[in-house]
Amino acid sequence: MKALVNFCLGMLKVMKGKGSFAQIFKDAFFGADALRFGSFFGVFSFLWKFVNNGLKLHRGKDDRINGAIAGAIAGLAILIENHERRVTFAQQMLIRAGQGVYNAGKHRGVFSFRHGDAVLFALACGQVMYAYTMQPESIPPEYLKFMLNTARVPAEALAFNRARVRGFPVDVSQVAALVRRHKPTPKALETVSKLDAFTDMIPCAVLHPSYDSCTYNNAERFVQVTKNILPVYATLNFVPLLVLRMKRLLANPVSVLSRTSFNTLRSSIFLAVFVVVYQSQICAQRNLVKHGWLKGNNKYLYWLFGVTCSGSAIMVEQESRRAELAMYVLPKAAESLYKILYQKNWVKGVKHWEVMMFSFAMSLIMVSIDTKKKKKKKKK
What we know:
Order of helices and strands: HHHHHHHHHHHHHHHHH
């Protein structure tokens, strides 16, 4: 399944003329990524079964202690993956473990929060969008690249904005050169020609030089983001359907395909709304400053804009997907916050922390899974 997802995503590059079919096929099915991933799963399963069953025989008991120890030891299988992937898996599984603890507490009536997933997503996105504008080095490179390609705001424009927020001058000639590379309108060129090194803030003419109207620019972004991300969401939705839920598809093909297609479009529109609402706020801020309604360009506004855009956009997604999105973004936000605090020397690094985190998380998760299986057996 991993190889097939990689292959479908690679084919999108082939369609854009950025690779060959033969190379994409080879990398997807015989590359290190899929082989490591499959080996990691295989070793994890082996260690889990071997240790869990061994403890049952040795202790003469079948309880949560066995599952906790077996899950922690099986988690060492993460060492098969490279460091970057280990960090990603450790973050994701720790969040999943936390989600399991929350669900268990919710099931027992200990706590429950209405729209807690949407609130969590909004807070996490606030940190991510702050990092995107103010501390891009704290975001994983591939994730930052995805954000830049999706938002379609030049990275240089973001760098100029950071410089002005922090009180540093900008090189006006570099700003003008950036604008000229993006099919500027005459008005955009005129606006940039009047800038000075200590301008209050980088104007909309630099952020979207091809369109004078912020409204028209955001409408164009909505269409383009939806169009560009649709094939990606189609791959992520249809490949698992074909590989893991074939029986359901064959039993009711029309209903399943139509629902999956609708959810694919819905997810694409969600991301487009996210991008447009965030950029609309950026443009609105500049227009308010231009007309004297606001003063200054505080860096924390970008965190607030991230919270508000994500909080509204998440409501477009189906409710069952909101927790998944929150679980996906939260590790990115946590990593960004950690790197910023580490940079300020407020926290210290721990060697192989990702392995310890993953083992701890899998200990909790495997106990939960084992307990659930035993409850089902008792009911039968």
